[in-house]
Amino acid sequence: MNKLRIAPLGLIMLLFACQSNQQDTKEQDNLNADTANMDTVFHGIDGEVNNGVIVRECYLEVDGRDSLKLNIEIDEQLSVTGKLDFANYQMDSSSGEVSGKIIGDTLVLVHEYQAEGTLNKVERVFLKQNDQYFLGKGETEEVDGVYVYPDRSEISFENTRVLDRIECNILD
Fold first, then answer.
1. How many domains does the chain have?
2. Which interval of the chain is the signal sequence (predicted)?
């Protein structure tokens, strides 16, 4: 008779234990989902989502009186927009907007700028290594009003301009 009374009590305890375990599992699943969401939401440098912009990056190269400034914003699709400024001491300078894409370790941009009263569009290709971008150089040709590299495998990143990453407030 005692065994019959203990059996329902054991069954009730087992039922509560399973429900508690399910609750703990559910709470852990929610915690994991929240963590995953935080890992996959793209935040800007300041930790906030800024109209789809993941990050703002700035780069600078100074060579004597010449400088090259790159200020870009990158979104979650690795699309890039920003500004590229060539400030040259004894040559024409060029400053204009850039737009493009990051492909692996390569930044491919179209640089639109005014020079001598003419709107120019030039493809600019940068190779990223650590916190530096190396400006590519090589033969270009005009295609639909944009000077592009016909064969990107021929672009050289040797003996070229090297931009170092800097804090963006330095350029602002």
1. 2
2. 1-22
